[in-house]
Amino acid sequence: METIDTLDRKILTVLQRSADMPLEAIGDQVGLSRNAVWRRIKALEATGIIRARRAELDAGKLGLGLMVFMQIRTHSHDPDWQGTFAKATQTIPGILNVYRMTGDLDYLIRARVADMADYDRLYQQLIKRVPLSDVAASFVMEEIKDDPVLPL
Amino acid sequence: METIDTLDRKILTVLQRSADMPLEAIGDQVGLSRNAVWRRIKALEATGIIRARRAELDAGKLGLGLMVFMQIRTHSHDPDWQGTFAKATQTIPGILNVYRMTGDLDYLIRARVADMADYDRLYQQLIKRVPLSDVAASFVMEEIKDDPVLPL
DNA sequence: TGTGAAACTGACATCGC
DNA sequence: GCGATGTCAGTTTCACA
Q1: CA separation (Å) from A57 to A17, A75, A126, B40, B88?
Q2: Which end of chain B is more exposed for a tag (fewer CB within 10 A), N or C?
Q3: Is residue A77's pLDDT more than 80?
């Protein structure tokens, strides 16, 4: 973690919300010239603080209206179980995040699917590739907040 | 949900990964002229399938290395409890997502914080504004997969 | 850091396919 | 629909003061 000054913070806050803003507009918001902004952004990209610029899509309009969390418990202490699990989840489309959580062996998967049938397809795909003893799925009924902006 | 053809899917797949690519480079990847790509992107923005372009930041390098899931159960059937809850979570920085889940009244919060002390600050902020009977927190030890790209 | 000028890219319009 | 071409404004990029 590097040190970031106030102006960089301001720039990052803007870029998190909309990365398609002209340098001059950003400069106006943070009180810097277009060029100063450009240099700072370049530096932030070089240090890896800015990872990428991505288009955020509407999952619902693309037919992926169902979000599901899968909570996985395993009693396997097999050293390469996690490797298999990681590789499987990495390659299955629709799986967005996989986390190893606190509490011994406990994994959380966040995935987007079209519907229940699609979820079952994903589930079958997963258990075909990894031995899973305990899987519980919870479905998202409503997204009350969805704001990827980190507080700076 | 509108119908999307194969070329639009290809364009969206590219844009999900990197939205800072010149139109010509995208055209090369999908087999279209810069102009055709431009027309399609405009249409995808107009229909709202492309929501925004955002810079993705490295949370760890910004001192927000701890991700936490808070699972909330409430027995309150108060009609405006959810309103209070929604408003509170909406305004507390660090809270990225709030979901209402299947299973009667069950909410899931995903948040990024600096450390345990910071989590406690967020927790205190939340319970000060909303009556919560049951809150369980799970912390992310390892991000095994983090890929926001939707399968198209 | 700011300024300026060059190079590039985006944002269209037009035409023919 | 698409591609090719052209034009123009806006933007990025990089010299240098």
Answers
A1: 14, 37, 25, 14, 26
A2: N
A3: no
Torsion angle of alpha carbons B136, A69, A98, B138, nearest 10°? 0
Query: In chain A, which residues from 14 to 43 place their CB closer than 7 Å to nucleic acid strand D?
Result: 22-25, 34-35, 38, 42
- Which tens digit of pLDDT belongs to each residue from B30-57? 999 999 999 999 999 999 999 999 999 9
Task: Report the SS3 class of residue A106.
Answer: strand
pTM of the model: 0.93
The CA distance from B84 to the nearest CA of chain A, in Å, is 12
Q: Could you give the CA distance from residue B147 to residue A127 in angstroms, rounded to a whole number?
A: 21
State both tokens at A78.
Answer: 């097999």
Residue A100 has pLDDT above 70, yes or no: yes
Return the pLDDT at B104: 66
Residue nearest to nucleotide D1 (CA to C1'): B36
Searching chain B, which residue's CA lies closest to the CA of residue A149?
B96
Residue in B99, B116, B143 to test binding to A, most A beta-carbons within 10 Å: B99
A60-139 maps to which CATH number? 3.30.70.920
Least confident of A11-25, A108-122, B77-91: B77-91
CATH of domain B6-46: 1.10.10.10
B125 to B65, B72, B85, B118, B135: CA distances (angstroms)? 20, 15, 12, 11, 13
Sign of CA dihedral A6, A9, A14, A19: positive
B22 interfacial to chain A (CB closer than 8 Å): no
Displacement of CA B120 from its chain's centroid (Å): 22
Predicted local confidence at residue B52, as pLDDT: 96
Task: Parse chain B into domains and list their residue ranges.
Answer: 6-46, 60-139
